[in-house]
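Bug report (template v2)

What were you trying to do?
Predict the complex of my protein with zinc ion.

What happened?
Run completed; filing so the output is reviewed.

Input:
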Amino acid sequence: MSETQVGRIIRQISGFYDIQTASGVYRTRGRGKMRQQKMTPLVGDWAEFIPGATPEEGGYLQRILSRQNALVRPPVANIDQAILVVAAAEPDFSLNLLDRFLVYLEGKSIHAVIYLTKTDLVPATRLAEIEAALEGYAAIGYRSFMSTPPFAEETLAAVRATFVERLTIFTGQTGAGKSTLINHLVPGLTLATGEISKALNRGRHTTRTTELFAAAGGLVADTPGFSSLGLLDVSLETLRDRFPEFVALASACKFRGCQHINEPQCAVKAALAEGTVMTSRYDDYVQFHTELAGQRPTYRK
Ligand SMILES: Nc1nc2c(ncn2[C@@H]2O[C@H](COP(=O)(O)OP(=O)(O)O)[C@@H](O)[C@H]2O)c(=O)[nH]1
Ligand SMILES: [Mg+2]
Ligand SMILES: [Zn+2]
């Protein structure tokens, strides 16, 4: 039997895990020994496996190496970056939904960048409004990309430059244009989009898997997206830490545990009054806070 090798799981198909190494892709199957690890292998995982003599002979998956992070939706591990795809219209542009996604990603320590799609579907005045809002996000640290007309080569090149040596996931609402964007970013790729993807996915949600594609020196993953994002997956106590601009100000609040809501001499509320914290961000924070406070506490082991 050959020596153990380490590679990255790029695909999962009915019990098999395709592992990418410098010498090729090995189709491996899980071993009893691996199941003792009580970790479900995910796409993006680094794994130890016993290879066959050639990639065609496959091999046996032995062990999953420790993870930097992992998401349940989508099921991907070791994510370096998320491209949050938001549409200018169809579905409606929503700052509230944008903030929900950002809170979710912050909670997993995944750096987010924003890509605005469907710039051709709104009048110039509306687009200018959206652009102004996105400039506010850039000031917080969330870079954004967009172009008119959509998919200008210069913008696509700038996005590709962020892929190098990273695992990038594309996330956002269903219909926002994730698959269409990836097809533009990765020459040769033809992911199903729009009505076609709807038809393909009907009735087979359980078998749908995530796959990693090589792109501009890195890996990218398309995801089915969310129709709504109820989950913030964050505790009431740590919600404020998911707003980077609040974190930057918190040491100037009078109270150490300041939640930036009812406390006096709060630096976040002062910045809000001055206009350096976005009103929409603060309002969403208060809304999420209220939402989380109304939920029954969940006790995690
Ligand atoms: N007009 C316009 N339509 C777009 C744009 N991007 C995507 N679409 C359309 O939006 C629909 C949903 O796109 P899709 O990529 O499947 O969205 P996903 O669910 O996020 O993967 C498809 O019909 C696309 O052709 C765009 O920039 N402009
Ligand atoms: Mg899609
Ligand atoms: Zn405060």
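What did the reviewer find?
The chain has a mean pLDDT of 89. The CA atoms of residues 136 and 278 lie 7 Å apart.
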